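hiii so um. not sure if this is the right channel but i have a protein structure encoded as tokens and i wanna go backwards to a sequence. like what aa goes where. can anyone help
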């Protein structure tokens, strides 16, 4: 039944540089969700944060490197 205590989901925009996290879900309207899913941000995908500054975040997902605005990254919930 239980898999132990789960970490609460955290927006990708708050993940620190050097951390690797797993996509738990993508929030937002259909347009933003569709865009992020096309980039590979789907449930269960691993995301490595290369660098994170106040307004931008650079990540590697499925072998590709992307730069995201922090507002967009906030739609990706990670665990």
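sure thing!! here u go:
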């Amino acid at each position: 039944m239980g898999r132990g205590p789960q970490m609460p989901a955290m927006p990708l925009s708050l993940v620190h540089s050097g951390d690797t996290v797993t996509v738990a879900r993508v929030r937002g309207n259909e347009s933003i969700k569709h865009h992020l899913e096309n980039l590979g941000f789907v449930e269960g995908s691993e995301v490595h944060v290369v660098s994170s500054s106040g307004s931008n975040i650079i990540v590697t997902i499925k072998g590709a490197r992307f730069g995201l605005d922090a507002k967009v990254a906030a739609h990706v919930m990670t665990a």
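oh and The chain has a mean pLDDT of 91.
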